[in-house]
Amino acid sequence: MEKGLRDTMRQPRVNIVIVNYNSYSYTAACLSSLFKSTYDNYRILIVDNHSSDNSIEELSAWLDEQNLNYGICKPEEHEVTKQIEKPEVRVILIRNNRNSGFGAGNNRALKPLIKSSSEDYIWLLNPDTEVEPEVMNDLVLATGNGEKIITGNSIYEFINRDKIIYCGGFKVHKNYHGMTDIVDPKAIGHIDAIAGASLFTPATTFIDLGLFPEHYFMYWEETDFCTLAKKKGYTFKINHRSKIYDHVGATAKGNFLREYLYLLNGLRYHKKYNYWRIPFILLSTSIKLLKAMLIEDKIKRKALYYAHVDFFKLIWNGNINIKNRLNQNRIDAN
After folding, report:
1. How many domains does one find in the chain?
2. 49 and 101 both lie in a single domain
3. Quick one: which of 5, 61, 198, 227 is 20 to 30 A from 148 by CA?
């Protein structure tokens, strides 16, 4: 390892942001792997999105067992800032008062971070991942001190550890709905977005580009963010030297939620960035809906149908309530 990265006085701090929702056991395992990191100067901010499984209490008890300094605060910016300003605090638990989704959950930590730690790095990490000890160090090395760089990581399945999920990110299809995971290191030049499961960048990136769009609730936020970054001349890099292992969607429960939001938010993304291709995109999603009507289960049929209904509502009057739609289908999104 490079000598300079072992000297914490010279290390830039890495602020690791994890959004937790009813997944404290996965989050604790993720933390265990981070605590073994060969990179020393880091702080972890866990935003709990109003979990119903006592995640904050369970994580607090677990951190007590690890004998670590941690703080608990409300999601208000000044409360988070108070915890950030305490150098002895290694982990900050942010108790969100509602499930505001992936983008908004991250933003609860990002907004105070970029104001108080603009010279640091920020690493967005999914709670259902575990990292090799060298990952943080290698991400810092891959990103370097340059501006306009967003770095992803090679991510593998947790159980089948030789099976790669993606080499850092994915490619967005321009003429039909969906994305393709990049699994070949030789194809990383085709990456349109770094996966939100592990997105590493200087804090100045969020000062330049702004925070995550919050209206998606879940899925396509990082795609929107990275598309804006590409338009502004950002470069994507991938760390292949060390691995992250993903439990593959363990925290994204509920087929209706996944199918509904993935299709709806993909349509919203294309409406924003590829508006003239919307007829082709809608043709592809209509075929998906027809297939679901013929051979898929009832939950998927409903999810794809309401995703189309709500997208056309957006076009006609610009107003939908995603949380109500999810609640109507018995998904806890409060």
Report:
1. 2
2. yes
3. 5
